[in-house]
Amino acid sequence: MLELFSMGFMQNALVAAVLVAIACGVMGTFVVVNRLTSLSGGVAHASFGGVGLAAFLGFSPMLGSLGFAVACAMLMGVLTWRDRKNSDTFIGIIWAGGMALGVILTDLTPGYSGEMMSFLFGSLLTVPTELLWWMGALLVLILGAVVVNYRKFLAISFDPEFARVQGMPVLAYYMFLIALIALTVVIAVQAVGMILVIALLTIPGYIAENYAKNLTQMIFISVGVSLVLVLAGLLLACQLNFVVGPTIIACGVLVYGVDFAIKKLRKA
Q1: How many C-alpha atoms does 84 have within 13 Å on its Cβ side?
Q2: How deeply is 255 buried, as exposed, middle or buried, from its count of CB atoms within 10 A (0-12, 13-18, 19+)?
Q3: Cα distance between residue 265 and residue 229, in whole Å
Q4: What percent of the chain has pLDDT over 70?
Q5: Is 265 exposed, middle or buried (CB count within 10 Å of its CB: 0-12, 13-18, 19+)?
Q6: What is the pTM of this model?
Q7: Is 262 helix (H, G, I), strand (E, B) or coil?
């Protein structure tokens, strides 16, 4: 095992795992508190359209995924804010449309269809050093935005009506929060892929919600749980020669199941 850590690809994977865990731990808290699970899943899957567009036009898939994720997140945010009754319909349409566009464009790009699996299920063991810089920069942006706007996000998460009465531009901060979730999705895709990213965004937050007394505690507990899941999944996958992304999520589901069972036993 120690010899494995001396290899460059494994060192990159560990750094990427930590970056992903911190981003998902922090923003996953807001996803859980604001009940944005469906929207986050929609953004994750729709962002594949950006990957296909990048492949077709010949530029960085990271940039394509980033731009498309933010654009889809903004569109979903506006539509669901104006018409909450049909929010699931809007999310589903954008979700399916983005995925369909991505698949069609990758099919039209010679020699690129084989790389689709790495975006769908993650490729943590093949993360290059230059991509780590991108992920690190996005994480710094996300953490900085959360620290600066923490009280605003707290207000719109728990009492948006009171925040509106106080003169706060609730919609603007809501859209900003969704944009940060989209950036987190782009980071997390590198670890677990677009299919499974929603689990990594929500499981740590749901577990943390059971033990935290306030939002700050919930964020720190969520980050801790996320770190444990990602690192445990990475090491287990390397030991057993499994695919990393699904192994991380399997660890998360197992931990959530144990936590849920313990909670039920305590009530009983």
Answers
A1: 3
A2: middle
A3: 23
A4: 95
A5: exposed
A6: 0.90
A7: helix
